[in-house]
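job 3f2a | input accepted
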Amino acid sequence: MAKFVNKESLTETIHNDLKISRKEAGHAVELIFKEITDALAQEGEVDIAGFGKFVIFDRKERMGINPVTKEKMMIHATKLPKFKPSISLKKICNSKED
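job 3f2a | predicted structure (98 res):
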């Protein structure tokens, strides 16, 4: 069965491994995600060695179709975060046997 990870499970892992309170572990998890979010919001990069890199991708303005009315409409340009996994993460993901 696949493992599921969310903020609560990360908090629990930090709490158990570092023997700190759940409140402190939760604060650490929130701080990490806030730092990543702030860097990306300022169009910076987040590069975590052995894991991957988060960058901002500029999606150009394009023509789309409203699925309800089938009317053509212009979809405005947006900035999106994009994740590029590291080579070592790719190797780990592809070496697991089911």
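job 3f2a | The chain has a mean pLDDT of 94.
job 3f2a | closed
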